[in-house]
Amino acid sequence: RSLAASNSDLLAQREQHLAEVQEHYYVNPPHLERGWKHFLLSTDGRAYLDMVNNVAVLGHSHPQLSERVSRQFELLNTNSRFNYSAIVEFSAKVTDRLPPSLDQVFLVNSGTEANDLALRLAMAATGRHHLVAMGEAYHGWTFLTDAVSTSTADNPNALGTRPDWIHTLESANSYRGLHRGAQAHEYARDAVAKLRRLATDGVEPAAFIAESVYGNAGGMYLPDGYLDEVYSTVREMGGLTIADEVQVGYGRLGDWFWGFEQQRVVPDIVTMAKAMGNGYPLGIVATSRAVADAYRAQGYFFSSAGGSPASCVVGSAVLDILDQEDLQGNAQRVGTHLKQRLLELADKHSIIGTVHGHGLYLGVELVRDRATLEPAPSETQAICERMLDKGIIIQPTGDRMCILKVKPPLCVDISAADYFVDTLDSVLTTGW
Ligand code: PMP
Prior knowledge:
Blueprint: H1 7-17, E1 32-36, E2 39-42, E3 47-50, H2 63-75, H3 85-96, E4 104-108, H4 111-126, E5 130-134, H5 143-147, E6 166-169, H6 186-200, E7 205-211, H7 226-236, E8 240-244, H8 259-262, E9 269-272, E10 283-287, H9 289-296, H10 309-324, H11 327-348, E11 352-358, E12 361-369, E13 374-375, H12 377-389, E14 392-393, E15 395-397, E16 403-406, H13 414-430
Parallel strand pairs: 3-14, 5-6, 5-7, 7-8, 8-9
Antiparallel strand pairs: 1-2, 2-3, 4-10, 9-10, 11-12, 12-13, 12-16, 15-16
Helix pairs in contact: 2-10, 3-10, 4-9, 6-7, 11-13
């Protein structure tokens, strides 16, 4: 019945059942039926190039993943208090890719859960409750993760509604913030000064949380040395450091598996999700034994589905396939080509203010004026709609909603990347 329903019927039914806050992409979204690699197919027989699905890191409907998880469903699925090998194999596969100090994992079901638990671990380990977050950040939707989510894109009141134990560092946006380009290192100086002022006022942070590459803000790097300076100061104050790798980790950056490697730091706690399940709900908090053990005194942890045999088999299969298909290498190769081509497009179309990012995490920032950097959100939205007409799925991000977030499945190839750039070129040339 649902396949037969017209697209407008389907949208009407959706509105009937889903609270309005659960928005959908596009004015008239295609009715999707299946995905294959970096393509999505609609019921009216159209194929769309998917430039936005960073969760489907292996591509859609990967046969080996389907086979391994279906086999596990046929064998056993139960909670993590039972004794089975999949949980040990997966946990070891993840910790093998992390710095040796981070050898303890908690298996959960999403990025929000991972960040919520990470913050609670820090609170338990330090006996404190003040938290420091960065501006223009998103870390999740639970009470605690929402409190450290400072982005105003979805909630214009975000900064005015945080609890008073949340402290925000200036968004280290080197493109349009207080300190630009070569001056961007000054953000670290300001952050350290703010932390010292907090200390003078008797505020002792439990933790500082940030994405290690600024994903929510469009995939831009933090200024060189930023995390090193901020982490050192937070640690001097007795706080812990949390790297949110939910979006930027797991090979997407091409040259680095984790975003924190780009900043040459080792966090006290790392959170990951999204890509690690290729769409299956999966998340992990990794930390040291000292931090993990401190939680026992103050917290309770059990997740009915987190760490189940099925989710661990998914997690292991994703890592195996990432390696077998050298998808991190592909992110590096295709990402380098794509960024180069987008930069060439910027020479032709003045609406492209800049291209952020690395590997297959890029952000094309659209501005009305390159001198004033006036954001172009309505143009960005219209361009996304026009790209859809032409068979490409792409969406805006950032506090000003003027950055095209380019983060396709990591199996995307050069010809698809070229098709994306050529189509964007034609939309920017002929109008939207
Ligand atoms: N952290 C970051 C940086 C994210 O981008 C997101 C999701 N957009 C989350 C956390 C929350 O992850 P989830 O949607 O899996 O709860």
